[in-house]
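DATA SHEET
Item: assembly model
Revision: 1
Owner: S.N.
Input lines:
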Amino acid sequence: MEDYHPLKGKMFQVLKPDGTLGPGQSPPMSDHETLDLYEKMVFIRLADQRALMLQRQGRFGTYAPIWGQEACQIGSTYVLQKGDWVFPAFREIGATLMMGISLKTFYLYWMGNEIGSRAPEEINVMPVSVPVGSQTLHAVGAAWAAKIKGDKIVTIVYFGDGATSKGDFHEAMNLAGVFKTPTIFFCQNNQFAISVPRSLQTASKTIAQKAIAYGFDGIQVDGNDLFAVIVASKEAVEKARSGGGPTLIEGVTFRFGPHTTADDPTKYRTEKEIEPWKPLDPLVRLRLYLKEKGLWSAEVEHKMTEQAQAEIDQAVKEAEAIPVPEVDEIFKYVFAEMTSPLKEQLEYLKSTLT
Amino acid sequence: MAKLNMVEAINLALREEMERDSRVVVFGEDVGKEGGVFRVTDGLQAKFGPDRVIDTPLAETGIAGAAFGMAVYGLRPVAEIQFEGFLFPCLDQINNHISRIRNRSRGRFTCPLVIRLPYGGGIHAPEHHSDSPEAILAHIPGIKVVIPSTPYEAKGLLLSSIRDPDPVLFFEPKRIYRAIREEVPEGDYAIPLGKARLAQDGKDVTVVAWGAMVREALNAAEQLKADKIEAEIIDLRTISPIDSETLVTSIRKTGRGVIVHEAPKTCGLGAEIIALINEKALLSLQAPIERVTGFDIPVPLAKTEHYYLPNPRRIVLAVKKVMSF
């Protein structure tokens, strides 16, 4: 990875957009594992599209789609182990499902039910973090605690290019560097923070190079190249797990969709700007790669899609079948034990409900 | 039993709790080698090592955000914010994460941490070192706000705060850090959170105070004896959740009330207490409740700070006003 020191200005890539391997590169996993991950990617893209559709139909709240960033999240979670911790921002359907959270649970949150933020006991995925960049510190704190306790786990935190402008990012990177916490900072540089382009967030040539100032490694990877993300993440995770400290990974990618369903991207970017990114779509190159291996065909794709849609139908059905929670639900998790003022307020509220 | 001041009592609480519970870690700016700018954590790093008593970089948001991550992971962090004036960068973490992770995750993740912060005026400190922002915190659902008024109280309340399953903001009245010495037992005694203390029994008027103002109220009560007025002093101890039962019981007995706080008047906790009493005991009142508070101005520097701070004289005047209504 020495060749990809951020100041050398070279982005790490394994699989080229045409689906062939870069010079001297080899795939990080078997063809069948690649096919499995491709199938996951298809599923996540379709589940994401369904979320958008449900929002348009009024069955979903405001939603932040992943469309285009699948390789960043799938590749980086693929290399995690049981016991590792994920700190998402709010565009992480990929990372969340990869960690084993069910689609039904994921949908529940965006349908407006907090129970969707409750990860099963054995899965350490935090609820989304809406205040941009604030979660970077949480990943450092948890990793720091693990280090103090002697646990060999890593934490990974997701954020965008916009978050790197925030003070929290600085404080988190600085703390992680000083205390050598086992933290992976994964920046999905998707070129826009709502409407503001990457060029207005920082005068740094790359985001990866910011790591140098904090005294640890940074690397810029082609965030639409699943193989590159896997290779870089694996190295970062192994280093962190063995006491080598944090890494900043900048995944260069593109958000094809809106920031959220409440946003109109035609206001700030033209079709012409999107055009060059289309052939770089993470699914396209993986499909070409698998086709060359004889593992992908229109028929395979059709079958995968059909199966995914059926699973998604089922998740939607199950999530929508969950009844509106009882009123106690919004009071009883504020503290471990409900306080007197809360008991009084709940009682009052109940008295006003027929 | 040793007579300790509040600094020593808090130090003792931290020391004993760190011995008892290996999950407790202390961290913040200058808390290690220096033992904190007020020496509250003096000697702890030497005893427990730099992994459990940690000097952090100068970053208040970072301290709060990292404490959140540590607590969620399973430690019991006790973070120090050096002065209340530096609390404000932490409010994002406190309001948006620390206070609500239990609720947001429906109990899957919790955040049992303590943020200690010296607060309040009266020590002729520089700017941004004399404020009383407790009501700002009390307005945030999901955290507890605890304020001790004596060394004994400080130890017992801090032990409860560290053991509490939810986040606690622990305000330390720096003005009385070394002003009071009293017997503080070694070993375990936890004072329950959310319960006020009857600091002095009386029948004529209820005076509600917390932190450094309890001492002012007690001094005022001494002076009022000359006028044959027996003031009942309630030390609120926990301002959130508030113990309305103790307040209402006392008001029902006395029919009159004065609330004392150092924080600015507008939207101070005094307003909340008056509203609570109106809801629950209006017909017991024989006079409108008076407030003796700071003013809606920045706390002045040393030369004029005395104008700002509530004192026994203002409390006596307020009591006489409600007595003669």
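QC remark: DSSP finds twelve helices and eight strands in chain A.
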